[in-house]
Design brief:
Elements lengths: L13 H19 L9 H18 L8 H31 L8 H12 L9 H9 L10 H23 L5 H18 L3 H6 L5 H13 L8 H19 L6 H18 L9 H8 L1 H19 L7 H26 L3 H28 L19 H12 L2 H4 L5 E3 L8 E4 L9 E7 L1 H5 L1 H8 L3 E8 L13 H18 L3 E5 L20 H14 L5 E5 L17
Parallel strand pairs: 3-4, 3-5, 5-6
Antiparallel strand pairs: 1-2, 2-4
Helix pairs in contact: 1-2, 1-12, 1-13, 2-6, 2-9, 2-11, 3-6, 3-13, 3-14, 3-15, 4-15, 7-9, 9-11, 10-11, 13-14
């Protein structure tokens, strides 16, 4: 296929950098002060429109490449050389830093999140188990902001081929109509077939925003005279967007997202050379926006985990914000500018090296485990009997064993019914179904899954069936304040599972959360305590489906997970 097309060469537009600067400021406001700037997330929508504009400009730029492969390769070179080196550098450094600050229980979740990030898959939903362990480490995902870059890179995979098909099978003057139909289809998909989270993260649900940018790029070739009514439209859009970003109450995204997307397209179309958007400070913020976007969130994660002390805002937050800005400026001036001047081959080697360094950091502990695994016949923990250890060695071993809490929840005898991992229903295998006497059931949150092996060893001699049902983070008896959106529906699911199984003996083994709360003010008797009342009602609802006995096994006192690492020192 011979590729032949032409579009006039374009010069760099400073107003687009100013618009990019406004977008990153919106995102920073939303991340650092979410209650003050609850609509700041719309800055990412602006980035998608700007990205679509740039993609169209690259695809339509005059080229000497006459083959499909050379055309596609050129597109990827131009886009990925800008994104990849800094992306992998930030991942590597963030992993090294955050491994020292995130609780050990969150280690596996960081690794899983990092693995998704290095392959641009961060926009995919986490499993229930992964969500649970993010709860344990205070819910900070150091790579949560990578989702937008994952959406963008996933779109890169299809847009060159899609554009070539448009060139091949549609009239030259029908591109806008085709892009419009594609945008409408994507928007319809995002509003009808997606829930709120899917519409936010899905690449397919974001195509319409890229298409707006591409349509604007085609339209921008037409001469637009600076008329008064067009200035009113332009500044009307700009002022309305700024007002929405600064308004301290969240508006419905079903209304805001189309408005911001279309308004961004209008500003791109009408603001060429605009003095406000071309203001030097604003355009420089746009220049460093990519570094700032990648770098600010790991700093915020550090503040949230180490310096926030549970507060929504303190002086440390301002310090962390300023440090992230300074680091972003340094990174832009010394690294981004440097590698963007390198030849394509050098950038490719640099990107591969940084990618491999990210993989090395992610998999270091697994490789170390494989290299130091105990031999045949040795103890599973790799230790020797009658061996004495120092406190330092005990602490090191404790941390090593704590790193893979989620992996250790898998019971080797369990046949899991779904694909989300150990925090779901499973039936234990290897039992004597003919001679076994009783049907046992193990019920609870991760505490139940964590004790599944011990339970199996103790009960298998008398069991004809052992059924296990564990859910992430949710107590089977009460849901009072802890993640109500997830756990309140789980209360009925626990009952449904017991009713379906009808065990002879039920063992409820759960890490109690709400139960450890003090009595409410002015409550002196358990009979007046709402948590106790809820537990008793739930207990009876579960117990009526148990044939013989129900045992509630509760660890007392409740464990403070933040202090576990201190145990070896005591």
């Amino acid at each position: 296929m011979h590729i032949s097309f032409y579009s006039p060469p374009s010069t760099k537009r400073s107003d687009l950098q100013g618009l990019r600067g406004l977008a990153i400021l919106s995102v920073l406001g939303f991340h650092f002060l979410p209650k003050t700037f609850p609509n700041g997330y719309l800055g990412v929508d602006q980035f998608f429109v700007l990205s679509g504009f740039l993609m169209s400009m690259l695809l339509r730029k005059p080229s000497n490449h006459s083959t499909v492969s050379s055309f596609v390769l050129r597109f990827y070179q131009r886009r990925l050389k800008r994104i990849v080196p800094l992306y992998f550098l930030v991942i590597s450094i963030s992993l090294v830093g955050l491994f020292y600050f995130v609780p050990d229980s969150g280690y596996e979740s960081i690794v899983k999140s990092g693995e998704r990030a290095v392959v641009f898959w961060s926009n995919q939903e986490r499993s229930k188990g992964e969500d649970y362990f993010w709860m344990l480490c205070k819910g900070i995902d150091p790579f949560t902001h990578m989702w937008s870059l994952s959406v963008e890179v996933q779109f890169y995979l299809i847009i060159p081929i899609l554009y070539l098909l448009i060139l091949r099978f549609t009239p030259s003057d029908s591109k806008i109509q085709f892009f419009t139909l594609l945008a409408l289809g994507s928007y319809f998909y995002s509003t009808v077939f997606c829930d709120k989270q899917q519409a936010f993260n899905s690449m397919r649900a974001r195509i319409w925003q890229f298409m707006i940018g591409m349509i604007v790029n085609i339209e921008s070739e037409k001469e637009i005279k600076s008329r008064r009514d067009e200035k009113l439209v332009k500044y009307g859009c700009l002022l309305t967007m700024l007002w929405i970003i600064g308004y301290p109450r969240e508006f419905p995204d079903l209304v805001l997202r189309p408005f911001f997307t279309i308004s961004t397209g209008i500003l791109i179309l009408l603001s060429s050379g605009d003095s406000i958007l071309s203001f030097p400070i604003l355009t420089y913020i746009g220049d460093i926006s990519y570094s700032l976007y990648l770098i600010h969130w790991p700093f915020y994660a550090y503040w949230k985990l180490v310096l926030s002390d549970g507060a929504e805002m303190n002086w440390y937050l301002l310090t962390v914000f300023l440090v992230s800005v300074v680091v972003s400026v340094i990174c832009y001036e010394l690294f981004e500018k440097w590698y963007l001047k390198l030849p394509n081959k050098s950038i490719a080697f640099l990107s591969i090296g940084l990618f491999l360094s990210s993989i090395f950091v992610l998999e270091y502990n697994r490789v170390e485990d494989w290299l130091t695994s105990p031999g045949v016949g040795a103890r599973l923990d790799g230790l020797e009997n009658n061996q004495t250890f120092s406190f330092e060695k005990v602490t090191k071993l404790h941390r090593k064993w704590s790193l893979y809490d989620y992996r250790n929840l898998y019971a080797p005898t369990c046949h899991y019914e779904g694909s989300i991992g150990p925090l779901e229903a499973c039936s234990h295998t290897g039992l004597d179904e003919e001679n076994g006497k009783y049907r046992f059931m193990l019920l609870g949150n991760s505490w139940a899954a964590n004790h599944a092996r011990i339970f199996y060893d103790e009960c298998k001699g008398k069991a004809k069936r052992i059924y296990q049902y564990a859910q992430a983070g949710c107590d089977p008896l009460v849901s009072h304040r802890y993640d109500l959106e997830l756990c309140v529906p789980e209360l009925d699911l626990y009952i449904d599972q017991v009713e379906k199984e009808k065990p002879d003996y039920l063992f409820l083994l759960s890490r109690m959360i709400d139960i450890g709360d003090p009595l409410p003010p002015n409550v002196t008797s358990l009979e007046d305590d709402p948590i106790f009342q809820s537990m008793r009602r739930q207990f009876h609802r579960i117990h009526e489906h148990v044939k013989k006995r129900m045992f509630v096994l509760n660890p007392l006192p409740d464990i403070d997970g933040t202090k576990v690492a201190e145990f070896p020192k005591k």
